[in-house]
Amino acid sequence: MLYAALEWSTQNYSRFIDDLRELCGGGVFQMPADISVLSNADLSRNFQTYWQTPQCDAITRMKLFKLAWDLVGRHQQYEKFYAGASFILRGHSFRETDWASFKGIVERLIDSYGCDSDERHGGTTVV
Questions:
Q1: 53: buried, middle or exposed (CB in 10 Å: 19+, 13-18, 0-12)?
Q2: What is the pTM for the complete model shown?
Q3: CATH topology assigned to domain 2-96
């Protein structure tokens, strides 16, 4: 289960990040590089006037976009390879998983289905 979860995360994390990127649009590139914009009175006034939205003030919006950038930028590289390359994880899964046990579970489940003859469904009906 551990390797299955790690494999799933390496295969799906990028999809989540792509969705977040789409939601951000170009906003992460339009924000100031850092909070030093507030140290200049004119820049601070313009920033707080033009970067606010009905939902949040400019500073809160900047913090939100900084968080998004941490996730879609530098953090993505870390998370994508945190558990290792996916081909290595698949090797661990193949080598260390008790596949016979899982096969037995599936076979017992299939064997538990009862079948009666029924011409309408090609000769058998699952009960």
A1: exposed
A2: 0.50
A3: Butyryl-CoA Dehydrogenase, subunit A; domain 3 (1.20.140)
